[in-house]
Please model this.
Amino acid sequence: MTYAERVLEQAIKNNPGEPEFQQAMTEILPNLQLVIDKYPEYEEAGILERIVEPERLISFRVPWVDDKGKVQVNKAYRVQFNGAIGPYKGGLRFHPSVNASIIKFLGFEQTFKNSLTGLPIGGGKGGSNFDPKGKSDREIMAFCQSLMTELYKYLGADTDVPAGDIGVGAREIGYMFGQYKRITGAYRGVLTGKNIIYGGSLGRTEATGYGLVYMTEKMLETKGQTFDGKTVAVSGAGNVATYAAKKCMELGAKVVTMSDSGGYIYDADGINLDAVCEIKEVRRGRINEYLEFNKNAKYYEKGLIWSVPCDIALPCATQNELQADGAAELVKNGCKFVAEGSNMSTTPEAVEILHENKIFYAPGKAANAGGVSVSVMEMSQNASHIPWSFEKVDSELKTIMCNIYAAIYETAERYGMKDNLMAGANIAGFEKVAKAMLMQGAV
Ligand code: GLU
Model:
């Protein structure tokens, strides 16, 4: 057994009943053995045992009062996974599925993602099993305030800086930021994704989606192609999906699908994004309401979004949304590119199918790193008290995404796995964190 295999086996035992976290480790660790073969001193220093164990996992109760006057209780977490290269950075997710396994898998992935950005940020993640669906504005505020009343103790501009994720957008960040300020009496850059009028960054809302498309553009370029005239399947209907779709359209592609947890829409004419924004951002409604805007579109409650024929698939909803059956459909219909807007969108079986069939595939830890990158630009603007223009943010974002692509592509090639961007991302993300850990001693 190799060192990586031994550590993985033990880590799986140490984290029983946590399938998502086990999956993320199983996906990453085998690639890291290749680095260990080159630098045996990493084994001596216990780098792998340390990298799979979060520095700390904070778990706490969030009591709040609903509109009927009843006390509700949710579970919340913050994992401060790895701080070797900078303050912990990563979003907060509000979704009924949230548990320790999901937060740990996300925090683990975030460590590699943040390293890939080339920016000085460590990996963190958090969230709650609170379900924002159907809640009033006041209930959302009460929940956010209660969560921050506990979480504020662990935050700091140089310590831990959360942001949004599924179920957490500018509204939730605003309520949490207001509560942080009320408790501490200080305006500090402890959250990113703020509205621009009180210290947010232009371009943060668009960043993950735009960044995803900038990376996909590089993938297409490698194969001598462009977005022009391509058909794209996008899943999800949050800010990642929406702005990914917008940028694809700007580049001359047609986006034909979007989805939410209820089902997916197929619009052969190309999705009308104004309608999606009206439904999701203004009404906070369901994607099936899209039929009110285009009667020719179709809505499917069941069935696979990935069975819609496309050249490029951009999963932007949630983890494990692209499984073996979906991957087989993509292959069958001639799809050639998959890039993940959501974290760990693709199951290991599906990744294998994509690789076997030469579909060029970029994992979320590289392809969706644009969001956290612009978050760091927001931190920088907060620290200097000088706002940046949209053009400056967007051009920095583009540079970062191109650099990440170059790094993962080159790393995969250097390790004899040309076109395996997953291996390239795992190794390139690891190299920097491991070196930093070694330099800082056994901490
Ligand atoms: N939740 C996002 C991610 O998965 C953004 C994190 C951030 O901006 O800190 O990377």
Summary: Residues 89-91, 163, 165, 192, 343, 371-372, 375 surround glutamic acid (CB under 6 Å). The CA atoms of residues 42 and 435 lie 9 Å apart. The radius of gyration is 21 Å. The chain has a mean pLDDT of 98.
